[in-house]
User: What shape does this take?
Amino acid sequence: MSQTNIPMVSSHHPTTFLERGVSVPFTTPMLLGARARPSDRGGLELIVANPSGGRGIYILPWSGICRLCRPTVHDTRLYDRIGSSQAITPAAIRAAAQDVATQGLAGREAVEAAAAAQAEEIRDRLSTNFLLMVAAIRQTDPSGIIDQMEVVTRHPALQQRAKYSIDIIAPRLGRTSEAVFSDLEQLAGVLTPIGLDQQVPLARVPRLLAAITRFRTATMLWAHDNPGNSGAQATLAATIADVTITCAEHTLADARASTDGIIDLLKEWNTAPEPVARRLARTEWLVDGWEQICLIWESTTTTAERRVAINELAWMVPILPKEVTGWLSRQVDTDVTRSVGRIVPAHIDWRTGAYFNRVARNERLRALAA
Assistant: This one.
């Protein structure tokens, strides 16, 4: 199949986040910024940019991708790993990417980074679980007084108070204390990416939101100092970043506020855990794909590098689906379109994706990813 025979979608403004797909950290240059989503015909399909630099996208199965370019071994293994997953979510893709990275297919540094990220997630999950129990104490203890130093040190006395609070909550839910402890652990797993208020260190999603905020500021300055196509690309990126930050701050606050009524949250979880999990994961969907964007930008140091980077990132910035309006108590302008094209870099065979400097760069991104 030649590239010219592959059907192209001229415009793509998804209605839902699942239709937009989940960002996949491929290392093949042509697949940078690609997104995976379930196909109506079963299996997966990938959404990739027009490799010639023009407008439009391609929506292809993996067999079509292999005819469009030559994926790296890492990317082939990653696609296989994603295909075996039961769900296509940011959390599932992240777990698959970490699993493949530990196999050494993106270099030794990526192996070490994946191990470190997995250790951080275990730490964050334990911290989130502990803070959920602290919330239970505050909502069941008549005094409600908690020494902050006890929280920081996870003092055994505080853990004993948490057990007492769970013993109070359990009969109200018609469950055993052991079952409530298990429910809290499961909720902690869902909340781990965003963490809770006063959690130290910050969880992964709040750290990423800070990076997106830095990116928005930098691209606004770039647009001011660089008129023309590069400035237009930067303006587009900054505009989408700004809307994303606003929406993510709202969903993050809503998710954390749900722990203010821990008994009601546990009742919801017992009745229908999947809708609760989807609601609490909204911020993850909003920031999906931004980690690569921020890392690419932050890895540049010269004006020339940033000009190339903004050209590359203009395609990657994820437009918000219309679904986000239903998530918030306010209208959100999602009608942002990519009205500027990309320039295909020199020394790249865009029909095969053979651009080895970019492959090495993308492998370094895998090592920098959280």
Observations:
- Residues 337-354 have pLDDT under 50 and may be disordered.
- The chain is about 60% helix and 5% strand.
- The first helix runs from residue 17 to 20.
- The first strand starts at residue 8 and ends at 9.
